[in-house]
Specification:
With about 210 residues, the protein is an alpha+beta fold. Helix content is about 30%, strand content about 30%.
Length: about 210
């Protein structure tokens, strides 16, 4: 267990809270990740609930992936520090692992569902971009589009489009995903921890 110092945004009371790091796939805390409540706190002074995030690692030994959650990933130093910290692990301990970084719980939840389903997130992000660039989806690729995410709904693979006016889900286009995987798999080298998202996919497509 580790401790983190938290300041209540409502009454400014400061207190320490214990937290687990890393969190494993068989942990009871996984349910709090999947329902996005792991960052929910209650102030011991004013009893008000608030959300306060902190960096932590999610480690899945069964499916061999590790994910850092850090809301300050926009700071390049944080990415470099995480990659440096990985050097403390033996090469054997992380052999065959996919290592990712994300800024949000939503990002972590998506990665968990992707990797547990046996998919490669790089190919999924490229799938999203190619869909948005297609004629059928150009109407959705505008300023109203906030995010596109992979998720499981009733145990079925879906892509959820989040827009200002609401959300809608489509069946995951597995044929397109498989075509992308076959075409680009040779480019998907896993050398270090990476932040894989729509921005990464757009950059990848521009460079290929």
């Amino acid at each position: 267990m580790k401790k983190i110092h938290i300041k209540c945004p409502i009454c400014s009371f400061e207190f320490d809270k214990e937290y687990v790091n890393p969190i494993f796939e068989d942990s009871k805390l996984k349910s709090k990740i999947m329902d996005l409540t792991i960052f929910n706190h209650t102030c011991p002074n004013c009893n008000k609930e608030f959300i306060g995030s902190y960096p932590f690692i999610y480690l899945d030994k069964k499916n061999k992936f590790m994910i850092l959650v850090d809301r300050n990933l926009k700071l390049e130093k944080n990415k470099k520090d995480f990659n440096k910290s990985l050097q403390i692990y033996s090469k054997t301990a992380l052999k065959g692992y996919t290592i990712r970084m994300t800024e949000s719980l939503n990002g972590l939840k998506e990665k968990i569902q992707i990797f547990e389903s046996g998919y490669l997130d790089k190919a999924i992000e490229i799938t999203k971009v190619l869909l948005l660039k297609s004629k059928d989806f150009q109407i959705y690729n505008d300023n109203n589009l906030k995010n596109v995410s992979f998720t499981k709904i009733d145990n079925k693979d879906k892509l959820v489009f989040t827009r200002i006016e609401g959300k809608f889900a489509l069946d995951f286009p597995k044929e397109l995903y498989n075509e992308i995987l076959e075409k680009y798999n040779g480019y998907f080298k896993e050398e270090k921890a990476q932040e894989i998202n729509l921005e990464w996919a757009n950059n990848f497509i521009e460079k290929i």
